[in-house]
Amino acid sequence: WAISPVLMKEGLKGAGPNEVNPVRSIAFFLTMLACMLYSQPGKWPTLTPLLILGVVVNTGTSVVLGDLLYIHSIEKIGASLAVSISCGYPLITTFFSIFILNETITPLVWCGTLFILAGLLTIRYDAMKRNREEPAYTLETPKEYRKQMMQGILLALAAAFFWGANIPFLKKMMVIGQWTPVESYFIRSMFF
Fold it and tell me: Sorting pLDDT into bands at 50, 70 and 90, what band is 189?
């Protein structure tokens, strides 16, 4: 997972974000098909029309839209900054889990979520300070640089929102469909 953003950034040199996502989806499907065949030979998940609609909406908003925003963010601000910002999604997941799954969030979970975010912000403060001193992108004016940074940050935040909202919805579908984790990811790979 950690090397993926770096590989995507390298892949963006020869292709745009819209070309990178389909390649990832083929690899994802083939990997999940192998996992299904190995871990659950002859057993396939149950799908109803409502679950299919849920998977299509869930996959479309989180995996397709969220990942596309994330890849565009990597293109604008680089892998390390995009990853750090988008990794704020646990806070979104926590909020959605309360409303969708009726989970009770303990103070310890809230503290852990906030510590994750505080750690990410601390790391990014240093990186942004270094980026100001040695910009990673050659833009004509500081105004263009700031605009590109702001666009990339907003794209990463939007990706975090879609990813964070996805997780409680996926859990709800797993419960309704009585899917194992392998089954749920195999189903998502068919629609991604």
Answer: confident
Which tens digits make up the pLDDT trace of 21-49? Answer: 677 778 888 999 999 999 988 888 888 99
The whole-angstrom separation of Cα 78 and Cα 80 is: 6
The pair phi, psi for residue 180, each rounded to 5°, is: -80, 165
Long-range contacts of 83-87 (CB under 8 A, 24+ apart): 83/5, 84/120, 84/123, 84/124, 84/127, 85/120, 85/124, 85/153, 85/156, 85/157, 85/160, 86/156, 86/157, 86/159, 86/160, 86/163, 87/116, 87/120, 87/160
pTM beyond 0.90: no
Q: Which of 163, 147, 141, 188 is nearest to 35 (CA)?
A: 188
* 164 and 89 Cβ atoms separated by less than 8 Å: yes
**Selection from 40-44, 129-133, 141-145, 173-177 with the highest mean pLDDT:** 173-177
Q: Hey, how many other C-beta atoms are within 10 angstroms of the C-beta on 5?
A: 19
H helices of the chain, in order, are 4-11, 17-39, 49-58, 67-77, 79-86, 89-100, 107-133, 142-177, 181-191
Residue given tokens 């799908």 in the structure block: 47
Structure tokens at 37: 């065949």
